[in-house]
Amino acid sequence: MRSDRGPSAPLGLKIAAACGLLFLHLPILLIFVYAFTTEEKSFVWPPPGLTTQWFAVTWNRPDVWEALSLSVRVAAISTAIALVLGTLCAAAVSQTRFFGRETISLLVILPIALPGIITGIALRSAFSLADIPFSFWTIVLGHATFCVVVVYNNAVARFRRTSGSMIEASMDLGADGFQTFRHVVLPNIATALLAGGMLAFALSFDEVIVTTFTAGQQQTVPIWMLEELIRPRQRPVTNVVAMVVVLVTLLPILLAYYLTRDGDQIAGSGK
Amino acid sequence: MTSAVSFQKVSRHFGSVRAVDAVDLDIAPGEFFAMLGPSGSGKTTCLRLIAGFEQPTAGSISIFGERAEGVPPYRRNVNTVFQDYALFPHLNVLDNVAYGLMVKGIGKLARQKAAEEALSLVRLPGYGARRPGQLSGGQRQRVALARALVNQPKVLLLDEPLGALDLKLRENMQDELKSLQKALGITFVFVTHDQGEALSMADRVAVFNDGKIMQIGTPEDIYQRPKTRFVADFVGSSNVLPPDFVQRYSGQHRWGSLRPESIRVGRGAKGDGVAARLVSTNYLGATTRLALDADGLRLHAIVPAGTAMPEEGEAVVLTFNREHLHLMDEPT
Ligand SMILES: Nc1ncnc2c1ncn2[C@@H]1O[C@H](COP(=O)(O)OP(=O)(O)O)[C@@H](O)[C@H]1O
Ligand SMILES: [Mg+2]
After folding, report:
1. Pick among A167, A173, A176, A179 to test the B interface (most B CBs inside 10 A)
2. Do both B157 and B177 map to the same domain?
3. Domains of chain A and any CATH numbers
4. pTM of the prediction?
């Protein structure tokens, strides 16, 4: 996939690529710029003046902290659940043969292929059918559905590369199931799990649709931002938070990319 | 004396595939036992049954007198050298070799010392710090061997261990394995599809076909006195002679086998013997292999290099000693 080997691309193509990249990334840059604007009611271009006061304002707003803390807790717990379930599922699907194996692997991946709105509505009606009140845990459950997929996809790819005879060799040398998992399986899938976990965290952190259907009165960061845009007061605060969100989600994705670069691609990063 | 490994009517079926079918087998302690057969004949499945990775669908297996049913692989005093070596890529060579001792809870110093010794045994001293990925195929094979031997197993299972090596290395390793086995006195069960390897290394050979054992015996037994057409053909490509042909020379209406090196090829169309025509010659270095056509029956003869050769297509007369004609049990 590298282009530095072949002949250089024609000029027209280069310009087209540059335009494409600008189109994708200019709006993000704009968001950053507006975090420094002095105009707080509406976004005007060019910004009438530049200031860093919004960082202090954001820091002192309790609703920002609440949303941030909720998002971090939801992401952390969904990721933890996904790591356990995703790994177990990947191990079962790639290490053993059983009736309905293909179906199960399809069913596991389905939540990420389904539009979020379907997952959201399905969960919402399930919760109300079962009389489960909306809470922190209903959000976690909603997020876990797609977090599991990300971990599963990464783990399955790595399991496929880990030869089955390595596990048998370990057993043959006297290691029981637990020792084999600890000394052979885990070291071999560790980076894949780390990558999957970070992607899951990033996905959960900026998820809107499923959250809207599964949250009660609580606001995660993205939901808080949506609400905030409607209010014409201290608008740049939203942009400051947006910058934080970009950092919190981009860094793990980049790290995950580097961890799995020589080997399997990051599966499911396109949600 | 209790057998090292004993199979009583052992079968392992996968659905309709009879990978191993009613196999009876007794391997003596300290024996070098080879399982020989074409690919898909059930050799690997037999090894996996001994190692504990497969359970028999019928019959019973005992290892040194103890019933093996239900004993998981990690509690069997048996170790395997896997066909693809299955070294752990995340561990260096020393930790690979010490793995079995590590999971048994043996202290770091003691197990590293034992691992060093095992590496010397397979002539790889000082390779401990390398990664498996940095080794050649032959070296990996030795590491796999050391990793198994360090546990002092009672039985060592080897699944086509030399299959991936080139000819020269292969011959060296054959000698080394053989002398290692003599020195350690461990029972070796050695799987191969190479008849030369089985015959040259083993004390006894079991010839497999379609999940069944066709014949068990010493290499000489198998080579000189094959019981069935399959064994005669597979082990060193004997000439298989149909009953009508055999009757003319032995008076008995039975299938026979005749080793290619037992056939003498004389020039000329007349003489006391089998009239044939030379189809082709195949130069093999020390010997030459001749394909012959005796009135529709395809025969092979091997003659020492340097013998005066007839031309291809020329009429020849084949002679052999009557005692070299071996009669088989194959039903006619
Ligand atoms: N796990 C399995 N599931 C289904 N069939 C199998 C399995 N393992 C082996 N077989 C079949 O059993 C037969 C014997 O295989 P194997 O023991 O590997 O032969 P060999 O080692 O002599 O080449 C083959 O036909 C193979 O396809
Ligand atoms: Mg095999």
Report:
1. A173
2. yes
3. 12-51 (no CATH), 58-260 (1.10.3720.10)
4. 0.77
